[in-house]
Amino acid sequence: MSRIRLYLYLLCCIFSLCISTAQLAHADVTPTTVIETTQEDSNLSYTDAVILGLVEGITEYLPVSSTGHLILANAFLGLNGDQAMLDSEGRPIMVTDDNGLPRPYTIGEAAYAYTIVIQAGAIVAVIYLYWQTILALIMGCLGRDPKGFKLAINLIAAFLPAAVIGLLLDDWIESKLGDNIHAVAGALVVGAIVMLVVERWRKRKNLNTSSIDNDLGLDTLTIRKAVMIGFIQCFAMWPGTSRSMATIVGGYIAGLSPAKAAEFSFLLGLITLSAASGYKFVSDGGNMLAALQVGPVLVGCLVAFISATLAVKWLVGYLSRHGLALFAWYRIALAIAVFYLIA
Q1: Would you list the DSSP string of 61-123?
Q2: 25-39: per-residue pLDDT in tens?
Q3: Domain span holding position 301
């Protein structure tokens, strides 16, 4: 019970942070022009890094949408504006727009890129906790572990839909939904409804079978079901939906127990998040590192690793005992509060 109370307390803290964000968003006027500022005023502080690291680590593998929470946290911290970012010599960092014309690189773009790159901390947490499974995957790819090979095939099959659709829609999603608080709140509600419906279906299905937990192993999933989970994961590209929620719900539909669905979500996230973080670092990492100090970036990743490690260990046990309902109601409460304050 002490762990449950701890994570409920942390979720309440994040909830309060997001409500404060909505109040600020309601009170402030969105700037329409690019405003140049000093490097110190527009940079990521260590306090910002710790807050973002905690939000990322706690929410990445919980079905509450880490991206949505990070977008709200960026707004709360004032990291979603149009201030021009400056390099170490005080000159604006320039990028090209869709028409090939030069324009300043903004703090909002740098912060959004950071919310993707900071996922590296959560990635390392899964590697740390599931190193034996990952070793089996490696040995399977080398032809020395048949179960590991089958699991690797299933993970690759589940990853491919997001890889293809993500590459096609990445720029559009970032430009249209990257810092859209209304879109985040809407996705929180829709995701919560899906979670409640699927959770009720799962419990009814288990009551109608002779075994509460069918104990379907991850390596025994069919490729068709793995691809189905992968397509469901694609809905999480809408900020606020939650990749973890989508893959856990997909695992439920595929016949996995809550614990196994969570484990598959973690392992699939290891591939998906690595690809997303790597792609963002390659495409925008140079500008981000020129705009942000390396120290806070690394501190944020470290905090994300520690908090994600604790969150993952807690989530598996909690889902097995209680299911998704708590997270669904949390999402609804947060969305209602955000809608009310920004209306």
Answers
A1: TTTT-HHHHHHHHHHHTT-SS-PBPB-TTSPBPEEE-TTS-EEEPBHHHHHHHHHHHTHHHHH
A2: 444 433 333 334 444
A3: 2-342
The number of angstroms, rounded, from the C-alpha of 233 to the middle of its chain's C-alpha atoms is: 12
In the chain, the number of structural domains is: 1
304 near 122, Cβ under 8 Å? yes
Tokens of 66: 């880490």
Neighbours of 334 (CB within 10 A): 27
What are the DSSP calls for 139-197, one per residue?
A: HHHTTS-HHHHHHHHHHHHHHHHHHHHHHHHHHHHHHHHTT-HHHHHHHHHHHHHHHHH
Q: Which amino acid is at 36?
A: E
169-214 tens-digit pLDDT? 777 776 666 567 788 888 999 999 999 999 999 888 876 554 444 4
What are 42's two structure tokens?
Answer: 């527009």
Are the C-beta atoms of 208 and 251 separated by less than 8 Å?
A: no
Distance of alpha carbon 161 from alpha carbon 157, whole angstroms: 8
Count of positions (residues) in the chain: 343
- Distance, in Å, from the CA atom of 11 to the CA atom of 239, rounded to the nearest integer, reads 18
- Amino acid identity, position 151: L
For residue 199, count CB atoms less than 10 angstroms from its CB and return exposed for 0-12, middle for 13-18, buried for 19 or more.
Answer: buried
**Residue 262 identity:** A
